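Regression check, flavin-adenine dinucleotide case 490:
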Amino acid sequence: MDAPPERSAESTPPGTGAADVPPGAPAETAPAEVAVVGAGLVGCLTACFLARRGHAVTLYERRPDPREAGAERGRSINLAISERGLDALRRVGLDETVLKAALPMPGRMMHAADGTLSFQPYSADGRRAINSISRSALNRTLLEAVDALPGTRLRFRHRLSALDPDTGAMEFATHGGTVTAVSPVILGADGAGSAVRAQLQTRPGFDLHQEYLDYGYKELTIPARGGDFALDPGALHIWPRGRSMMIALPNPDRSFTCTLFWPHRQLTALDTPEKVTAHFAEHYPDARALIPDLAADYALNPIGHLVTVRCAPWTVRGRAAMVGLIGDAAHAIVPFYGQGANCGFEDCVELDRCLAETGDDYAAALALYESRRKVNADTIARLALDNFVEMRDKVASRAFLARKRAEHALERALPGRYVSRYELISFSTVPYADVERRMARQRRWTAAATLTGTLTAAGAALGAGALLRRWRGPVTPAARSRGSRPAGRR
Ligand SMILES: Cc1cc2nc3c(=O)[nH]c(=O)nc-3n(C[C@H](O)[C@H](O)[C@H](O)COP(=O)(O)OP(=O)(O)OC[C@H]3O[C@@H](n4cnc5c(N)ncnc54)[C@H](O)[C@@H]3O)c2cc1C
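Current build output:
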């Protein structure tokens, strides 16, 4: 039986028409009413930003409250947050709280099959770090922040099952039956498999492209050893093995979460404890020794899928409602640049900025937000796919490490003029698409500088050659073909 609507929103139009409001500042007119579907990382942060603007936000989540239920098995346990994510958290005053529970990783530690280790710092000065953070702890911190803000309501165990973008009517499956609600603004922050997006997909002209990798991921645990970390906690560990790889990030409880990124066929081929143990003994011998429950963990832990989602439009304007997509719902990417959540957090900052610029007019703000963010999301999606090859294969080569060292030397020699892509993606908030434009410019001028250097060297060599010839006399064609100097000038 249908429960009565939770809230009638007929009296609140999509935009409040408030005067220009700086980011984070509360709207001065009647609060806009917004439903955010999905209380994951991005949905919670979106709710924080909107509530700080004075908007009334209801957050709907299909799961039980994670503060009571604990972490969900099969989702990545920890993730790396870098400057883009921190910048967003800073704007709502949460960066320090989050960083207190984080472990900085200033570089990568590569594990060769023979156990040789090589460390490669992420930044030229070796000081900047990405931060290993527990996904569930971050989610809990964000939920607490939403809960503490006035005008917010949390609705757990509410799975969106239907949505009419024209009217803003929503249906949720709950333990007590179907619950309906109406909102003039609905934001889909419900992840890569977004139900909100699925509802928009039925409209003519909605474009959806999902690219599944032929790879899956599986998590394993390296527990603390004698109360301490079994590996250096100041690094993101990588076991590059050509077509596949394993990574490990440290956790505050001194364990490491390992993630295997393997072709699906390889993941399913290890179907007995003996096969698992033998495979690890051959390809990951140093890690094998550190995972006591390897075979059991391997059998028990689920295989996750890796997908890139590109869709358009992110915003649909119905007759009486606006629907927008944010975070993975709009642009899920593969995790190989550690940017999915960082990028989703940047969406929240941009939406807040657009609301400020448009006087909290959601129709205008969402259109502006999409026009600014789509190109950046497409860029990081491509870079994340490219980076998989770098992580699983290239980092193992000496030539690659030498190139990275040369790049860092160039960055130190030309501070601010030459900056690596990794630095700009992970340690700045330069829009992703601008990073690529800058990379193209840098490539042009380093190529020009190399060419100038080569030409200068060649010019000097030619000049020296001409002097020599004047001294030695002309080279005859016959002598040139013999490769010898003219007779009599030896
Ligand atoms: C293995 C792996 C490693 C990663 N590592 C990193 C990393 O190092 N750094 C990084 O920045 N990113 C990383 N990511 C990406 C990051 O996890 C995502 O980009 C991020 O979680 C997206 O947040 P989100 O809130 O948009 O979606 P989600 O985190 O998926 O949250 C969506 C929420 O919506 C809820 N929901 C779904 N459907 C419904 C429905 N019908 N009704 C109501 N609620 C619903 C879900 O329960 C969930 O709580 C990684 C991803 C993977 C898979």
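Comparison notes: The pocket of flavin-adenine dinucleotide is lined by residues 37-43, 60-63, 76, 79-80, 159-160, 189-191, 195, 217, 259, 304, 327-329, 335, 338-342, 344 (CB under 6 Å). The chain has one domain: 33-387. No diff flagged against the previous build.
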